[in-house]
Amino acid sequence: MSYQLKEDLHSSKVIHLDSKFGTTFLQTGTDGKRLTTNYIYNLTEPLLVPDNQKILVSLYSSTIPYSFYNLRTGVNDRFYISYSTNGGASFTDCYFDLTGGNYNAYELITEFNDRIGTSGAVKRESDDVADDTIKDQITFTWSYDRKRLKYNVYYASSGSINQIRFTFNNSNQTIANMFGFYDGDVVNPISTSASNPTQSTKCIDMNDAIHGLYVRQNIATKGTMDNENGTFSNILARIPITTNAGGVIFHKPNEATHHNLVGTNAIDNIGVKLTDDRNRPIDLNGLDWQCALLISFVENKPLQQEYITRPNAIVPQPQVEDVLPVEQVEEPQVKLVRQKAVRDKKPKKKSK
Questions:
Q1: Which of 42, 195, 237, 333 is deepest in the core (most CB within 10 A)?
Q2: 136 near 161, Cβ under 8 Å?
Q3: In whole angstroms, what is the distance from residue 137 CA to residue 174 CA?
Q4: How far apart (Å, rounded) are the C-alpha atoms in residues 46 and 26?
């Protein structure tokens, strides 16, 4: 949709925001310190909007350090595992948390073995009490199939444990995607055969729910549709991840085709939030990020009633009895006369 910008309207404004100078931070990170990706900035000089105008809000540019992790503490770090000593008649459900960080497929295997082999790391779900039974009796062997992008795993037991299962209980903290399992999967039993190991049910997703970054704001709250819950949300723009971990994401839309139309008299504070695909805040681990908002002014025209005709609308046709008879006027018939050519006649000779 295009808007006409007239000379008598206010000129557009660009508001540069830096999380370093945020007024109020709404969340804390795993380290207990402020989360730089969810804050409110109070404008010292409010932005006033005349009564005869509205504003268009769009993302002008953004700079974000790639310092967030693909395995995030408290977000997608929990592995659920159960063991049985009676052939699967009953299970003891346990869990353990992996250490937050950036992992590749092979480093994730190492982290799994390190954590499950750490004393006190595995806890029972029922009472959160440490249970070292798996650590003392079970040895897991993982391998990564690069052709299929899946993990293979089997185990060996040196004690009373005779069955192992993985349970991903569909919670927000599950690490199922990174190991190639669906949320809610119950993988039972885990193989004990090296020649026929248990394989991931889908391709592993080392990025989990960070396939793009979403900038959200508090100026326009109904500008875009969020298909996670099927409602309109406050998403301003989606930023693709164009660099590797440790780099900086520079984003400047080549053509800002989407604008949020807002009717307000003034803006005295701006709230911004950086999230993943599931509206969970991104933790930049203490680093700051910047974004710029473009504010354009358009004419606030009064609403006019419009009549819209659908292209495929069915127009009712008049019935036969409703049609008035048309008086028929008999036109005179014109007779066509065939004309014959008249030749000069020669006088007849008299007979003698």
A1: 237
A2: no
A3: 24
A4: 21
Instruction: Please tell me the distance from the alpha carbon of residue 298 to that of residue 4, in angstroms, as a whole number.
Output: 7
* Distant-in-sequence, close-in-space partners of 61: CB < 8 Å, separation ≥ 6: 251, 252, 253, 291, 292
* Alpha helix positions (H), the chain: 105-116, 133-137, 176-179
Cβ contacts of residue 243 below 8 Å, gap of 6+?
Answer: 66, 249
* Spatial separation of the C-alpha atoms in residues 130 and 128, rounded to whole Å: 7
- The count of domains in the chain is 2
Q: Specify the pLDDT at position 5.
A: 54
* 143 belongs to a structural domain: yes
State the pLDDT at residue 22: 95
Domain hosting residue 20, numbered range: 13-68+210-299
Q: Is residue 311 part of a domain?
A: no
Q: Is 272 helix (H, G, I), strand (E, B) or coil?
A: strand
pLDDT beneath 50: ranges in the chain: 1, 323, 342, 352
- C-alpha closest to that of 223 among 257, 269, 271, 258: 258
For 258, the token pair is 């989407």
What radius of gyration do the chain's Cα atoms show?
A: 38
